[in-house]
């Protein structure tokens, strides 16, 4: 047995410190160091003689490269995010707020796979088997042959999985409840989560089963504990949604086998999650086009165009330092657009409170939204509603120029499909044939947009 070694591990970032400190030196969080005894812990155990490994030339592998074997869940919105299905032998972390619908989504995916003859094992450490069954009944998927188990010990789980036909998919709900007897820490601590996840990932690689680890996120948006698992898994997916909305968005933040900019859109209903194949219709559904301060942004989420309304409210501020509040967009980006409007377009927003929201609970990361944001701000300030049949996109630079963005044609096509007749976009994004389409307004300076709204 290795000598017991005392260590202090940060429960936020997983950093190891030889002595206790009030503040983690690595991530700066206070009061996160917890004493952990790592005797025989991860990577520990009795010493083993070194064995020479096998080295392969990259070129020699040329003939062997093929796309990884995948199992599609049959839920199109989920398969889009994973890049075409779960890769066999891979590990996925699904993070999200408690109650957002992670268990619901995975139960539905399990049922869909099991119904097609794959062996799926759903291990719940949070709910009793009867509870999971009840939920499945409510969702109308209780007939699917999903194997359910309520276990939290990694050793027991591995023994359960070894018995019977090897599974294609194993769900572990959640990683915070797992514990292994190889380490002495309490369940939910970073050491336990990491050691348990490591054991399960090893199982995935050996058996060829896909494992999905569920991880709860804390209020500040970090996956508590499971964050240290992020770099161990092949893909990290987040399930997010705004309180009060029924929309749920599945987003990949890391994917070794696919793109990370795709989103899957779902709606939470009484009978589980239903897919939303055309999110634009949903996001524009509750629109009040006649009110000032709303602009429709023609955005892209991965390979899919998504139209969404950007709402701005500009109001005189009673405070010395006016408020700036943003939901669904980057606050830094808003500050930049405000500064450009002030200094290059003569729009005086300085003494005003500014609120900006992306409708429907969507979060936008594209700089292409700059132009729509600017339009919404100017519209709110001037009290003039924007044309109801117009979409906006384009990146704004610090000099006040409007820069071209990718996929202009796709954005315009989606807008046209949804009944929009006009678009304001960077002039360089209009190619020759599009130039003849009526309704397209190409601009190269943000000042041009401001002048057109006031006119
Ligand atoms: P759940 O999947 O348990 O969330 P998580 O695993 O992320 O903690 O989802 C729980 C919420 O979803 C709960 O507030 C009720 C709601 N819900 C529905 O609205 N309809 C349904 O059919 C189900 C199963 C859940
Ligand atoms: Mg759950």
TrEMBL record:
Function: Plays a role in repairing double-strand DNA breaks, probably involving stabilizing or processing branched DNA or blocked replication forks.
Residues that coordinate or bind ATP: 96-103
Region of interest (Lon-protease-like), residue spans: 353-455
Keyword ATP-binding assigned: yes
Family of the protein in this entry: Belongs to the RecA family. RadA subfamily.
InterPro entries, per the entry: AAA+_ATPase (IPR003593), DNA_repair_RadA (IPR004504), P-loop_NTPase (IPR027417), RecA_ATP-bd (IPR020588), Ribosomal_Su5_D2-typ_SF (IPR020568), Ribsml_uS5_D2-typ_fold_subgr (IPR014721), Rubredoxin_2 (IPR041166)
Coiled-coil boundaries: none
This protein's domain notes: The middle region has homology to RecA with ATPase motifs including the RadA KNRFG motif, while the C-terminus is homologous to Lon protease.
Motif RadA KNRFG motif positions after renumbering to this chain: 254-258
Transmembrane annotation, as ranges: none
Biological-process GO terms, alphabetical: recombinational repair
One function term, GO molecular function aspect: hydrolase activity
Protein name, as recorded: DNA repair protein RadA
Organism this protein belongs to: Kaistia soli DSM 19436
């Amino acid at each position: 047995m290795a000598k017991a070694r005392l260590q202090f591990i940060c429960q936020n970032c997983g950093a190891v410190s030889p002595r206790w400190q009030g503040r983690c030196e690595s991530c700066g969080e206070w009061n996160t160091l917890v004493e952990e005894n790592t005797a025989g812990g991860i990577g520990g155990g009795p010493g083993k003689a070194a064995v020479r490994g096998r080295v392969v030339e990259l070129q020699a592998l040329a003939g062997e490269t093929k796309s990884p074997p995948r199992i599609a869940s049959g839920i199109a919105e989920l398969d889009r995010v994973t890049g075409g299905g779960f890769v066999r032998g891979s590990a996925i972390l699904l993070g999200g707020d408690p109650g957002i619908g992670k268990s619901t989504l995975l139960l539905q995916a399990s049922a869909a796979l099991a119904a097609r003859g794959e062996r799926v094992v759903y291990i719940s450490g949070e709910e009793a088997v009867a509870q999971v069954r009840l939920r499945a009944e409510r969702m109308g998927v209780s007939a699917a042959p999903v194997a359910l188990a309520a276990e939290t010990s990694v050793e027991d789980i591995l023994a359960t999985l070894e018995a019977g036909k090897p599974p294609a998919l194993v769900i572990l709900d959640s990683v915070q409840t797992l514990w292994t007897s190889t380490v002495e820490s309490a369940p939910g601590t970073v050491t336990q989560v990491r050691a348990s996840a490591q054991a399960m990932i090893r199982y995935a690689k050996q058996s060829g089963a896909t494992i999905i680890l569920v991880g709860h996120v804390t209020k500040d948006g970090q996956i508590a504990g499971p964050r240290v698992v992020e770099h161990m898994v092949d893909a990290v997916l987040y399930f997010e949604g705004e309180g009060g909305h029924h929309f749920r968005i599945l987003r990949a933040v890391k994917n070794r086998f696919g793109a990370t900019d795709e989103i899957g859109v779902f709606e939470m209903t009484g009978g589980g999650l239903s897919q939303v194949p055309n999110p634009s219709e949903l996001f524009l559904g509750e629109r009040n086009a006649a009110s000032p301060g709303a602009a429709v942004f023609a955005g892209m989420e991965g390979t899919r165009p998504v139209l969404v309304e950007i709402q701005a409210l500009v109001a005189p501020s009673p405070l010395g330092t006016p408020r700036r509040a943003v939901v669904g967009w980057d606050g830094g980006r808003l500050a930049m657009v405000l500064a450009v409007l002030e200094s290059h377009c003569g729009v005086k927003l300085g003494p005003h409170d500014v609120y900006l929201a992306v409708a429907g609970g969507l979060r936008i990361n594209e700089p292409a939204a700059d132009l729509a944001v600017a339009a919404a701000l100017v519209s709110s300030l001037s009290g003039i509603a924007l044309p109801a049949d117009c979409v906006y996109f384009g990146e704004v630079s610090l000099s006040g120029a409007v820069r071209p963005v990718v996929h202009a044609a796709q954005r315009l096509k989606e807008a046209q499909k949804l009944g929009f007749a006009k678009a304001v976009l960077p002039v360089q994004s209009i190619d020759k044939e599009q130039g003849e389409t009526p309704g397209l307004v190409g601009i190269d300076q943000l000042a041009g947009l401001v002048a057109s709204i006031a006119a």
